Amino acid sequence: MVPSRLEILGCPLDRVTMAQTLDILRGYLKTDKFHLVVTIGSEMIVRAQTDHEFREAVRGAALVVPDSIGAVLAARYGGYPLRERVTGVELTQKLAQQLGPSLRIFLLGGAPGVAETAAHKLLNLGPGVHIAGTHDGYFKDDAEMVARVKASGANVLLTALGFPRQELWLTRYGAACGVQVGIGVGGTFDVLAGRVQRAPQIFQNLGLEWFYRLALQPSRWRRMMALPKFALRVLVGGKRAVRPMANP
Q1: For the packed helices 88-99 and 18-29, what is the interaxial angle rounded to 10 degrees?
Q2: Closest-CA residue to 144 (of 114, 107, 118, 177)
Q3: How many angstroms separate the Cα of 150 from the Cα of each of 57, 106, 123, 161, 245?
Q4: Where exactly are the structural domains of the chain?
Q5: Angle between the 226-237 and 69-77 helix axes, to the nearest 10 degrees?
Q6: Is the pLDDT of residue 101 over 60?
Q7: Taking a C-beta distance cutoff of 8 angstroms, is the pair 116, 134 a contact?
Q8: Segment of 39-43, 44-48, 178-182 carrying the highest mean pLDDT
Q9: C-alpha–C-alpha distance, residues 47 and 56, integer Å
Q10: Cys-Cys link to 203, which of 82, 189, 212, 217 (CB 3.0-4.6 A)?
Q11: Does residue 45 sit in helix, strand or coil?
Q12: Cα–chain-centroid distance for residue 79?
């Protein structure tokens, strides 16, 4: 299945549901190629406006799924509604639950000990999940880390290094790691490990998860400034801001 792809402010976005995403990943796992999967949000799209290298990494991804409500609303505004968000947290959980036996996952990122705790949570979610390895995000030698991941025999590499680092790292080194799928999952490890509380379901349903996180962590206000910038650029851009584009 080839998804319909949009372009929002120059960044691609695939109009896929969670079920479609999982089907696509099943196909990727049967190949011997590396596939970058980006879970994109409004902040990332704003960053891509001024960060050429990051924008090219996103544009070169095999699959770009809608992580944030901002991306969903922008697509709807452009006349291309999406059925649902595909967040990094939920995608990671669904991978373990539904693709467990076919996975050999390496978790890379987070503070010391967080990836290990998150890995234990994934083992409890899906029967047959194999954790190939874990490592925190404070490594300095990229070549050594690439060798570590490759030696683990992993076929899925989850990176929680924060954007744009996680996407750039996967773009540069994903293929050398020998994995078929690389996904930047942001703060997912912290959520799985219980270090960060996700918003209650009602906030998620209303598209106010960002507000809940800001209330818990007021220090995030600078990052949240990207949200009105994103909205304004989409509104000013009109039909030019959201448009269909050729599939990769």
Answers
A1: 60
A2: 177
A3: 22, 10, 21, 18, 34
A4: 22-245
A5: 10
A6: yes
A7: yes
A8: 178-182
A9: 12
A10: 212
A11: helix
A12: 24
Cβ(124)–Cβ(176) below 8 Å: no
Q: Are 36 and 57 spatial neighbours (Cβ–Cβ below 8 Å)?
A: yes
Which residue type sits at 122?
Answer: L
Residue indicated by tokens 């400034």:
225
Cα angle: 86, vertex 166, 57; to 5 degrees? 80
The secondary element (H helix, E strand) that includes residue 224 is helix 221-224
* Other Cβ atoms closer than 10 A to 69: 19
In the chain, what percentage of residues exceed pLDDT 70? 85
pLDDT, tens only, 166-199? 999 999 999 999 999 999 999 999 999 998 766 5
Q: What angle do CA 66, 167, 129 make, to 5 degrees?
A: 75
For residue 28, pLDDT beyond 70: yes
In which band, very low, low, confident or very high, does the pLDDT at 248 lie, cut at 50, 70 and 90? low
Looking at residue 196, its pLDDT comes to 72
pLDDT at 92: 97
Query: Which tokens sit at 41?
Result: 């949000």
Query: Could you tell me which residues are beta bridge partners of residue 38?
Result: 64, 184
pLDDT tens per residue across span 191-246: 999 987 665 666 566 455 654 454 455 555 455 566 777 778 888 887 789 999 86
The arrangement of strands across the sheet holding 5-8 comes to 11-14, 5-8, 242-245
Q: What integer pLDDT is reported at residue 195 of this predicted model?
A: 81
Burial 28-63 (b: 16+ CB within 10 A, else e): bbeeeebbbbbbbbbbbbbbbbebeebbebbbebbb
